[in-house]
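Q: Please design a sequence for this.
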């Protein structure tokens, strides 16, 4: 019999321009929108969800999440996901599920932006993006490329990133 206990979670409807958004440093450039997370929704299952747009010729560097699972769904653009040495096309409608501790990177190989939705369980990626990025409003021009913070390794360790094999 289904549990009829009301959920403590809240209904949340958020338009893209209402979400916290951050310009991202090199090598990704572009920006992220942090659309939903457990703090916003009160969800019983910890998660975070948003979008990331990577500029042409740029990439999300190789990384892994040692305590998180991640889903990526490509919304627009063309690129390549490199997963533990193998390359996979990223195009509209492509979907990826990453169990914890699977190394991956994303490369924009197209002429326009590569945009994908991300979901991470449990959450924490939204905190990383806020800490390494710069606040963004929808009507502002992109900034000149800027470097990652000097303490990026500390920020990674404090959020959702594990150590790549042979790098720690």
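A: Design:
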């Amino acid at each position: 019999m289904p549990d009829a206990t009301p959920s403590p979670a809240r209904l949340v409807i958020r338009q893209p321009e209402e979400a916290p958004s951050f310009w991202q440093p090199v090598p990704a450039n572009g920006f992220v929108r942090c659309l939903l997370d457990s703090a916003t929704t009160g969800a019983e299952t910890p998660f975070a969800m948003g979008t990331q747009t990577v500029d042409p010729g740029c990439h999300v560097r190789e990384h892994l999440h040692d305590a998180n699972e991640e889903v990526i769904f490509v919304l627009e653009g063309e690129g390549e996901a490199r997963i533990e040495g193998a390359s996979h096309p990223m195009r509209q409608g492509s979907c990826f599920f990453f169990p914890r501790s699977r190394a991956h990177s994303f490369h924009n190989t197209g002429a326009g932006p590569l945009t994908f939705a991300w979901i991470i369980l449990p959450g924490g990626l939204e905190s990383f993006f806020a800490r390494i990025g710069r606040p963004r409003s929808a009507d502002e021009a992109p900034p000149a490329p800027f470097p990652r913070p000097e303490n990026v390794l500390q920020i990674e360790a404090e959020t959702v990133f594990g150590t790549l094999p042979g790098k720690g």
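Q: Thanks. Anything notable?
A: The domain at 17-50+57-115+125-136 is CATH 2.60.120.10 (Jelly Rolls). The CA atoms of residues 24 and 133 lie 5 Å apart.
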